[in-house]
Amino acid sequence: MDIVTNFRTFLEVVHCGSFSAASRKLHISPSVVTSRIEQLEWNVRSSLFERSTRKLSLTDQGRRLLPVAQRIVHDVDDAISSISGNTNDLEGPLRIKVPTTLTAVFLARVLAGFQQAHPNVSLDVVVIDRNVNPVQEGFDLVVGMLPASYDDVLDVGLCPLDRFVVASPLYVAVNGYPQHPADLSRHRLLNFGPTGPIWSFEGPEGQIAVTVEPHLTTNDGLMLLESALAGIGIAIVSSYMASAALAGGQLVRLLDAFPVPQFWIRAQIPHSRSHLSRVQALLTCLRETFDPAGVWEKNMNR
After folding, report:
1. Which residues form the HTH lysR-type domain (predicted)?
2. Three-state SS for 134?
3. What is the pLDDT along the chain (302 residues), one digit of tens a residue?
């Protein structure tokens, strides 16, 4: 049995959530799907799925195999395309990871525009905030805020991203303005969980690090913003999230004498995928969108 075919069947079962749905998608019988999965399980000497009457889920071994299968199928498809003389590979799948809030308020529109321009490219978009290794987890491109800390990855800075300490006018009217980062210990703080409990500031004599005890911790940027708008406490938010509320007076900036270090919006691509035309096309789209001059933020709500 062709192991690449078995990998394709495995990926379809994962995508569809059941053997029967995968069989309909692949136009084969359920027994053939079962046979292919059993053959693959024999090859890897492990069960790949937890089978129950209610749902189908991956075992630990299945989760480890998933990115490997994705890479192998992608590489085989690319090799066939190259050997057959099809040098224009602006078609086929792209698996990408993007951050939640940036996607909700802006990036979803960018990706929709990309697919309108390239209708033969299919996107598998995973929306999460954690840092991922695109090589190990089978992504063609990831968008994030932290530099790559692993090998075999092309790390492209797209644009700087300012972050501000903010609160509502009501909050500061009741609780006052902090004059120094050390004053934050006397305030209610709203923390973005993925960045950790340490808030960093640039002071006249160097960096200042404050370990916070949050009144609220969340992994959702929009909830963080809404909580600040509601007067719950003080938050650090990205400029693209806060700009409209700051301009409208619903938020005020705090501690401007102690700026928060910039992040960079970054694209990270496995070196093994960077030659693909569809990957390069998406990278070009992102570079043109996230221009360093910050025009993208000014145009967000238009």
Report:
1. 1-59
2. helix
3. 588 888 989 988 888 888 888 888 888 888 989 999 999 999 989 899 987 656 788 899 998 898 888 888 877 877 766 665 554 558 888 999 999 989 988 899 999 999 999 999 999 999 998 888 888 788 999 999 888 877 788 999 998 889 999 999 999 999 999 999 999 999 999 999 888 899 999 988 899 999 999 999 998 899 999 999 999 999 999 988 898 899 999 999 999 999 999 889 999 998 888 888 899 999 999 998 887 555 566 655 54
Provide the angle, in degrees to the nearest 10, between the axes of the packed helices 3-16 and 19-26: 120
Pick from 52, 47, 63, 53: nearest CA to 14: 63
The whole-angstrom separation of Cα 96 and Cα 137 is 10
Cβ proximity of 212 and 189 under 8 Å: yes
Token readout for 290 is 């996230």
pTM: 0.67
**What CATH number belongs to 92-159+263-298?**
3.40.190.10
**CATH superfamily of the domain spanning 163-254:** Periplasmic binding protein-like II (3.40.190.10)
